[in-house]
Design goal:
Blueprint (H helix, E strand, L loop, with lengths): L16 E3 L4 E3 L5 H9 L3 E4 L8 H9 L5 H7 L5 H4 L5 E4 L2 H10 L5
Antiparallel strand pairs: 1-2, 3-4
Helix pairs in contact: 2-3
């Protein structure tokens, strides 16, 4: 696991990254197969509007009614730095909420 590449002012600054040979993924993804499942079972896509560039928290709120699942959208789309890795018109995979809930339950993150 390595330190986050985000600047000190970023809301993502405390989010550590795991790295393997091919990709980086947020630290909550302890097993790469969980990340692969999240990506492969995404049933929705949405286009990023100009107002939502870099705002995964806002997209999370619109999709899941909570800002706290921004990291799921980031992971499913290979986004490490939303300000750098997002652009208007980009298509995002939106993972199914039921799968997220099941993952959170297995990981001991369920509320």
């Amino acid at each position: 696991m390595s330190a986050s590449p985000h600047g000190a002012a970023s809301r993502y600054k405390d989010t550590a990254l795991n790295r393997n040979r091919a990709t980086s993924f947020y630290s909550l993804w302890r097993r790469p197969e969980e990340l692969a499942r999240m990506r492969s079972t995404a049933t929705r896509v949405r286009d990023v509007s100009e107002a939502n560039v870099g705002r995964l928290d806002r997209i999370s709120h619109e999709e899941y009614d909570t800002v706290s699942l921004w990291w799921v959208i980031a992971a499913a789309n290979g986004i490490i730095d939303p300000r750098r890795d997002m652009h208007a018109g980009q298509r995002l995979l939106i993972p199914d909420f039921a799968l997220i809930a099941a993952f959170r339950q297995r990981a001991g993150l369920a509320e």
